[in-house]
Amino acid sequence: MAIAKCRFSGQPLHKTFVDLGMSPLANAYLRPEQLNKAEKFYPLHAYISEENLLVQLEQFETPDQIFSDYAYFSSYSTSWLKHAKAYTDMMVEKFHFNHHTQVIEIASNDGYLLQYFLEKGIPVLGIEPAANIAKVAQDRGIPTINKFFGVETAKELVMEGKLADLLIGNNVLAHVPDLNDFIAGMKAILKPNGILTMEFPHILQLIEQNQFDTIYHEHFSYFSFLTIEKIFAAHNLRLFDVEELPTHGGSLRIYARHDDTDYPSIRERVRYLKEKEIAAGLHQIETYVTFGEKVKATKHKLLSFLLAAKAEGKSIVGYGAPAKGNTLLNYCGIGKDFIDYTVDSNPYKQGLFLPGTHIPIFHPDKISETQPDYVLILPWNLKEEIMEQMAFIGEWGGQFVVPIPEVKIYPCPVPDRVLIRL
């Protein structure tokens, strides 16, 4: 059997971070006619590099197979849109971007973010690999090219005179199988005095909050600040600032510039976060290799709750059809015997079925029709938003269940008060 290799250094990987068994691609939703056909399952085994402490998966499918036609549309989350607008306002105020500057976003999705820069009269360009999503952005009047990003795409844009004063990449770095090509492309397209920002889930939160369901095949890598600083430095990019964000269960927003410039200066938050990560043990291999036991305990608790609820004759449905939910359900072996159906506000997912478990996806109105006892919130990072929208389940005594970081049952309509802790 071939030995997995680190996607940054190329060195062999021997240490396990967590092994979640066999699982289908998390965004490979099924049409009705596909239900009786064989599905592809792949090992969902995350390794940790002893050399640079980069957590990563082996690559089984190419990015083209995974992302060319994608089901995730950023604009269907109101909280994410608020986050995008707040970022736009902050960056314009802080760095004075205007109609003379160029903003470029990698993996720009449906234009959820660039629309706010465009409203301010700032030239934008989106680079989006999924053709179906890029077309949505284009139809909305947001300049978008349908390409995967790397050195080749960067060189093409530079030849066309497209260089970035602000280069953005939100929740894309984890999706990149060739980190060196991707970051070298960012280096090439960034103007000499340009600024680069990226957001990605913070592995410190993944470990401390037991967010194992954020591990799936579309996410090739998982980063600490200590590790990403080394990777960027290898490409002559300097991280000069960082923010800890609540999005996606806890993310980092890093700020980078060319390392041969002195402005902006390095902020105190860089030193603070590095010290915080060291205090949490993220500089030691032992912190990573013990994570698997915590994951097993969560699986047992969730299955115990579901078994007890079904034994009492309770009905359970899901809310959301996120990729993380498919990791959770497949790892725990939760199918239609436990979950009657799930709902999602994204019309592109309605009428489809979850990969592996074949749980059907309906419009959220389905919950009012069937009045379930429990609603299992699969996109737990949006639980406050969902509980507010679905507070009406309290009318028939319905309750919410959130599985991560541990199984909790919430009453209605007060989302921040825990009724039961298992």
Short description:
This protein has 422 residues and is an alpha/beta fold. 32% of the residues lie in helices and 21% in strands. Helix 5 (151-159) runs parallel beside helix 6 (179-189).
Task: Give your account of this protein's structure.
InterPro entries: Methyltransf_Zn-bd_dom_put, Methyltransf_Zn-bd_dom_put_sf, MeTrfase_14, SAM-dependent_MTases_sf. GO terms for molecular function: methyltransferase activity. Keywords: Methyltransferase, Transferase. The structure is a single chain. With 422 residues, this protein is an alpha/beta fold. The chain has two domains: 202 residues, Rossmann fold (3-Layer(aba) Sandwich), CATH 3.40.50; 131 residues, Rossmann fold (3-Layer(aba) Sandwich), CATH 3.40.50.720. Helices cover 32% and strands 21% of the residues. It contains 14 helices and 18 strands. The strands form three sheets. It has a seven-stranded mixed β-sheet. Strands 14-13-12-15-16-17-18 form a seven-stranded mixed β-sheet. α3 links the parallel β4 and β5. α5 runs parallel beside α6. The two termini are 40 Å apart. The C terminus is likely disordered.
